[in-house]
Amino acid sequence: MGEIVFWTLVRLAIVIPGLIILSSYIDFRYWWFISILAIYLLVIYPTVSQYRKFEERSKDVVEGTLCSSCKHFSPSSVFCNKYDKHPTVDYIPCEGQSWEPKE
Ligand code: SF4
């Protein structure tokens, strides 16, 4: 999840200065249209696409592991808050020893 945020910020850091530079070369009314299109195509679409892939990859962990029913598990980041690790289908960081039910 952090990787998605990082690359979104990198893309924004490239696109925004590019659009500012572009504004001095083209007419303002076209610049708005190009800006909206560029932000959608270069920032929003890749972010949504990356997030969907992340959700697909983590679906099995979020729905089908011991961690998914534990109060220390954060489903949005697929992360064990107690052990600071990412559980997988084959890897439960505490091996079940620290499992606690969600409240
Ligand atoms: S404490 Fe154990 S069961 Fe709970 S989320 Fe962490 S690794 Fe999974």
Strand order of the largest sheet: 1-2
What is the percentage of strand-forming residues? Answer: under 5%
Number of strands: 2
Mean of residue pLDDT values: 92
Oligomer: single chain
Low-confidence stretches: none
Distance between the termini: 25 Å
How many helices does DSSP assign? 2
Radius of gyration: 20 Å
Could you say which overall geometry the principal axes of the C-alpha atoms support?
rod-shaped
Main pleated sheet = 2 strands, antiparallel
Please provide the ordered H/E string of secondary-structure elements. Answer: HHEE
Number of domains: 2
Structural class, please?
mainly alpha
Bound molecules: iron/sulfur cluster
Helix amount, in percent?
55-70%
